[in-house]
Amino acid sequence: MEMAESLIKQGKAYVDDTPKEQMRSERMDGVESKRRNSTVEENLSLWKEMVNGTKRGTECCVRGKLDMQDPNKSLRDPVYYRCNPDPHHRVGSKYKVYPTYDFACPFVDALEGVTHALRSSEYHDRNAQYYRILQDMGLRRVEIYEFSRLNMVYTVLSKRKLLWFVQNNMVEDWTDARFPTVQGIVRRGLKIEALIQFILEQGASKNLNLMEWDKLWTINKKIVDPVCGRHTAVLKDKRVLLTLTNGPEEPFVRILPRHKKHEGAGKKATTFANRIWLEYADASVVSVGEEVTLMDWGNAIIREIKTDDGTVTQLVGELHLEGSVKMTKLKLTWLSDIEDLVSLSLVDFDYLINKKKLEEDEDFLDNLNPCTRREALALGDPNMRNVKKGEVIQLERKGYYRCDVPFIRSSKPIMLFAIPDGRQKSTSIGA
C-alpha cells in the first residue's frame, strides 16, 4: 500500500473510476481515461476513499500510468489495486484494498530476494509489464525464466473446467480417479515416486508439450511390478466350470508366495480342488484333447467340452501334472469352486473428453466422453480379504489394480480400480 501511494505521489499511478466495461474497451482502443491526468491531490483523495472502503472508494481502482499506445496491451495502464470491503478469509476486515497479481508479483519477488521468477510461457506477453513495473517502483530487476505448461492428451487441466465436472456430478469429487489432480491420479493407482520421476524427466522445457499418459504409467509399472502381491480373479458372469476327473477328492491348501521374486509381499493360501472356475474367454478357445497349464498347479488335458447353442457351459478334463509347462500354448488362471471366494468389483476408467487435443476455439462440452467408467463383477481368491485400502496388487493375466474399498463383509464387494500399465489402450486418468 505504501508503494502504491508512493507511485501516486510520483505521478506514476492514478485512481480511475471509469466503469469496468468502458475501461476494457478504452484499453483495447488505446484511449486514455478521463482520469489519467488528475492531480496528485485528487488521486490521493480517491485513494483514501478506497482504503476506507467507502461507496465512492468501491467505484475506483488504481492504475499504473504506463503507455496507452503500446502495441503490447498489457502495458496500457494496467490495474494495480482494487477496492473490496468484503471480509477476507484470513485477515478479516483489516484491509479494504487489495493489489492485483500484476502489481504484487514484481513487488514481492524483488522484496523477498528472488533472483529468477519461474513463470509459464502463457504469461510471455506480460513480461514487459513486469519489468516496467519494477522499474517504476525503483526496485532491482528480477529475471524471468519461462517454461511451458505440461499438457496431457485427452485432458483438461483448467480448474474452472474441472469444477464443471464436479458441479454437474460427472465425477465423485476432486479426488475422482478420472481427474488429473494429484489426489485423483494417486487414487487411480499412481505412486508419487513415479510422478516425481516423470516431472524430472520433462525438465523446464520451453517447447509446448502435449504428453501421452502412457509414459507416466510405464514409469509407475516399473515401481509397482517388482513388489505388488499377485492374486487371481474370474469374471462372475463369464466363468466356466472345469471338472477334473482325477483331481483331489478333498480340497487341500498350499501356502504360496504372493510374489515369486519378492518375499516382502508375503504368503497366500491357495486351495486346490477337483472343480475349478475358468474365465469364459479361456474356456471358449480350448479344444478337446488339448493340454493346458493351470498356473501354480500343473498341466491338465481337456477331455470334454459341453456347449449350449454354441456357448461353452462346462469342461471336463484330467490332471497331467507330469506334463511340461513349456509345451503348452495356454497358461490359465483358475479358482477352486469353494464357498469363501470373495466378491470383487473391477472398475476401469476412460478419459473424460474424447479428443486428443482441444484447440483454442473448441468447447470441451462438445467433446465429452459418454462412457468414462465401466464396472465388472468378479470372484477373487479368499486371500484378498486381507488387501488394504490403497494397496496395489496384480490380478494374474488381468493387470494392476488399486484397492479403493477393502473387504468389509461378504455382501459388499471389494472395489478395485484398474491401473493403466502404459501398454494397453491408455484408459488414463485423464480428465
Automatic annotation (TrEMBL):
<dbReference type="InterPro" id="IPR014729">
    <property type="entry name" value="Rossmann-like_a/b/a_fold"/>
</dbReference>
<dbReference type="InterPro" id="IPR020058">
    <property type="entry name" value="Glu/Gln-tRNA-synth_Ib_cat-dom"/>
</dbReference>
<feature type="domain" description="Glutamyl/glutaminyl-tRNA synthetase class Ib catalytic">
    <location>
        <begin position="2"/>
        <end position="224"/>
    </location>
</feature>
<dbReference type="Pfam" id="PF00749">
    <property type="entry name" value="tRNA-synt_1c"/>
</dbReference>
<dbReference type="InterPro" id="IPR050132">
    <property type="entry name" value="Gln/Glu-tRNA_Ligase"/>
</dbReference>
<keyword id="KW-0067">ATP-binding</keyword>
<keyword id="KW-0030">Aminoacyl-tRNA synthetase</keyword>
<dbReference type="GO" id="GO:0017102">
    <property type="term" value="C:methionyl glutamyl tRNA synthetase complex"/>
</dbReference>
<dbReference type="GO" id="GO:0006424">
    <property type="term" value="P:glutamyl-tRNA aminoacylation"/>
</dbReference>
<dbReference type="InterPro" id="IPR020059">
    <property type="entry name" value="Glu/Gln-tRNA-synth_Ib_codon-bd"/>
</dbReference>
<keyword id="KW-0963">Cytoplasm</keyword>
<dbReference type="GO" id="GO:0005829">
    <property type="term" value="C:cytosol"/>
</dbReference>
<dbReference type="InterPro" id="IPR011035">
    <property type="entry name" value="Ribosomal_bL25/Gln-tRNA_synth"/>
</dbReference>
<feature type="compositionally biased region" description="Basic and acidic residues">
    <location>
        <begin position="14"/>
        <end position="36"/>
    </location>
</feature>
<keyword id="KW-0547">Nucleotide-binding</keyword>
<dbReference type="GO" id="GO:0004818">
    <property type="term" value="F:glutamate-tRNA ligase activity"/>
</dbReference>
<feature type="domain" description="Glutamyl/glutaminyl-tRNA synthetase class Ib anti-codon binding">
    <location>
        <begin position="230"/>
        <end position="319"/>
    </location>
</feature>
<dbReference type="GO" id="GO:0005524">
    <property type="term" value="F:ATP binding"/>
</dbReference>
<keyword id="KW-0436">Ligase</keyword>
<protein>
    <recommendedName>
        <fullName>glutamate--tRNA ligase</fullName>
        <ecNumber>6.1.1.17</ecNumber>
    </recommendedName>
</protein>
<feature type="region of interest" description="Disordered">
    <location>
        <begin position="1"/>
        <end position="36"/>
    </location>
</feature>
<dbReference type="Pfam" id="PF20974">
    <property type="entry name" value="tRNA-synt_1c_C2"/>
</dbReference>
<dbReference type="InterPro" id="IPR049437">
    <property type="entry name" value="tRNA-synt_1c_C2"/>
</dbReference>
<comment type="similarity">
    <text>Belongs to the class-I aminoacyl-tRNA synthetase family. Glutamate--tRNA ligase type 2 subfamily.</text>
</comment>
<feature type="domain" description="tRNA synthetases class I (E and Q) anti-codon binding">
    <location>
        <begin position="331"/>
        <end position="404"/>
    </location>
</feature>
<dbReference type="InterPro" id="IPR020056">
    <property type="entry name" value="Rbsml_bL25/Gln-tRNA_synth_N"/>
</dbReference>
<keyword id="KW-0648">Protein biosynthesis</keyword>
<dbReference type="Pfam" id="PF03950">
    <property type="entry name" value="tRNA-synt_1c_C"/>
</dbReference>
